[in-house]
Structures are given as structure tokens and as C-alpha cells.
Amino acid sequence: MSEYILPLEQLIEQFAKLPGVGRKTATRYAMALLEWPGEAVDAFSGALLDAKAKIKRCRICNNISESELCPICSDDTRQGVLCIVEDPRAVMSIERVRDFKGKYHVLGGVLSPINGVGPEQLKIKELLQRIEKENITEVIVATNPTVEGETTAMYVTRLLKPFGIKVTRLAYGVPVGADLEYADEVTLTRAIEGRREIT
Amino acid sequence: MSEYILPLEQLIEQFAKLPGVGRKTATRYAMALLEWPGEAVDAFSGALLDAKAKIKRCRICNNISESELCPICSDDTRQGVLCIVEDPRAVMSIERVRDFKGKYHVLGGVLSPINGVGPEQLKIKELLQRIEKENITEVIVATNPTVEGETTAMYVTRLLKPFGIKVTRLAYGVPVGADLEYADEVTLTRAIEGRREIT
């Protein structure tokens, strides 16, 4: 049963397709949008179409890009180290640090059999082609520290073994500035395992 | 500093205008949307424009409507009782019960000085005009049971006093099917105050 008049029902349906948005939240969004002035709604609608039309994936690293080749892949000063991440958000996070001077490879997700995501759904084949072609000395596997991220990291590491390249994983430990009291047991265990001598 | 490429940044900005959506959630929505097929994005964009273009406010009750007069206001069998609510969602909630046979008046919000909402921002003048013109025997003030909803209910009740009409408020109490353990103290106090003899 559609509860609301059709155009509203259809808008709610669209909002409900966003990740983590249920019918209640979608209704809230749709109702709020009805209060917007016409130009604001036009701008929203335009931004949607614009983003879809203008944002491509870099043909080398699969990061989002306005051009066929993203600015990072076009930058010849970035060499040697390849950082493997799940999605473009991770690229942004690492770029924000301004410390990493290698390139990226965006897998486009993590292995998740329950969601039907196998190696074919990720940019794994493309990764191996890059390893063969490019002059890479180290691969940093920077998938998220979740169960699925770990599984994917292990899978990728195993695939890279035959190439004889150094493969590293981000360090685990307590987040800087956080209170030990709030660190979960797994994180603390990893932090103790990875402890370093003070010199 | 805009972190992402411009079209994505602009889409994130639009999503961040939705109620309760911060930059993080907006980014999540925008990223998800980039994965949608082109037709799905077109449909979303179309639904936005469609909703804005087709949804009007009923000129009598201020409820959302596709026509100048909403189906409820056009229904001559609904007479006598007028239910005052904050927004169209409340109309839908009460309609779902299929028990109420009167009409509605949608205030379009609640009094909230802190947010700059006074009586002029609500459809209060229109309410008084209806009370004068229509043959109303009872007014049910069904604003939400929040502090602002209460204040608005009290304000409206005072305005209606001179008309000599019966003004009622929805009963407070424990929600049916809920566990007493989870009822807050104010609700329980109201439930005890409003207790009824079992006959």
C-alpha cells in the first residue's frame, strides 16, 4: 500500500535506496525536500546528474577521477610503492596525511561471499597486471581493519607472493589521542604484539 | 578545502543539506550513488523534480496534495471535528487508524522561538478563519508530545477559547504493546494521572 500521494511515494522510494536509509529516514528526507525552494531542488537534481556524468574511474588505479587518468596516476614523481585500498574514501584519507608518495590501487570493495563479492567483482586482475608492468618495490595492503578487510588483505598477499615483492600491512594499535580505557581487547592485543622498544 | 573532485564535492554538499545528515553520511550517500547505473540516477533526479513540481499544499488544510484541494477537504462526509497537527506525516499516521472521520489542519511546524518560528510562520491565522467559517464542534489538538508540541498546543488552545468550542488533546499513556520497564517517568506519571476504572 502506498501511503502517500504518488510523487512523494516515488521520492521516498529513491531516498530509501541510499545505504543505511530505511523508510522512516527516507520519508524525513523527502518531506524536508518538499520545503526547499525550487532552485534548491533543481540544484540537487543537477548535482546528481552532473556527478554521474562527470565522474569516471581512473583506468589504471580505479580511483574516482574527472579524467581518464587520475592526477595521482599521471604524477610521475610518485613511484615504487603501491597502496591497495578498498575505496576512493581510503585514498582521500591517506592523501590527507601528505606523507605517502606512492600510487594507489582501488579494489572497489572487499571479498564478501555472503554479499556475492568474489575476486572477479574486485579489481584484482588489474592489480596483478600492474604488478607485472609497473616498477613496484613495495605493496602496502591498506584495506580496512575489519574481518572482510583482513580476509581480502590475506587473499591479496597470497596472490602477490610469487612476485617476490615486499608486502606490508598498516600497523595495528591504539589510536593516537584515544584513551586506553576505550580500546577494545583485540586492538589492545595487537598493540601489545606490535610494541616497539623505546630508544 | 574541498577534498574531492568538484562534481563529487557538490553532490556531497547537496546531501549534507538533508536533515540530520553530516558530511560523513553525505559522502557515504554520494559514493553509493556513483555506483548506481545511469538510469537509476536519472530516476532519482526525476523523482526530485517531479515531487517538487507536482506536490502542492491544500489551500484549506495545508496538507500535501496533488490538487488545489486535498481529497480529505473535498470529502463532504467528513464534518464536525478538526484535528490540528504539526505536519503531513501526522495526518498520515492518524489516517492509518481509519477511525477519525473529521478534517485536519496542518500547522506546518511548532512554535520554536529559538528557531525563529512564531505564530506567523505557522498556519494559525488560517486556522482561526476556518473555525469562524466551518461548522466545527470539536478541535483535537494533536501536536507531538514534545516540549514544543505542548507549547504550541497550549497556545492554540488559548486562541480557541473565545470560540466556545470543545478543545481536546490526545491521551497520554504507555504505548500499547510496550514494556512498562522501558516507559520513561514522565509518560508513566501521565499514564497514572489518566488512569481509568475497569468496568
Structure description:
The structure is a homodimer of 199-residue chains. Helix content of chain A is 43%, strand content 11%. With 199 residues, chain A is an alpha/beta fold. A 4-stranded parallel beta sheet of chain A has the order 4-3-5-6. The first copy, chain A, has a two-stranded antiparallel ribbon with strand order 1-2. In chain A, strand 3, helix 5 and strand 4 form a beta-alpha-beta unit. The radius of gyration of chain A is 21 Å and the shape is globular. The mean pLDDT of chain A is 90. In chain A, helix 1 packs across helix 2. The first copy, chain A, folds into 2 domains: 49 residues, RecR Domain 1 (Helicase, Ruva Protein, domain 3, Orthogonal Bundle); 118 residues, Dna Topoisomerase Vi A Subunit, Chain: A, domain 2. At the A-B interface, helix 1, helix 2, helix 3, strand 2 and helix 5 of A face helix 1, helix 2, helix 3, strand 2 and helix 4 of B.
Distance between the termini of chain A: 69 Å
* Count of folded domains of chain A: 2
Radius of gyration of chain A, taken over Cα atoms and rounded to an integer in Å: 21 Å
Q: Strand percentage of chain A, roughly?
A: 5-15%
The mean pLDDT of chain A is 90
Largest interface: A-B, 50 and 50 residues
Task: Summarize the SSE layout with pairings.
The structure is a homodimer of 199-residue chains.
Chain A: H1 6-15, H2 23-34, H3 38-54, E1 56-57, E2 64-65, H4 71-74, E3 81-85, H5 88-97, E4 103-106, H6 124-133, E5 138-141, H7 147-160, E6 166-169, H8 185-193
Parallel strand pairs in A: 3-4, 3-5, 5-6
Antiparallel strand pairs in A: 1-2
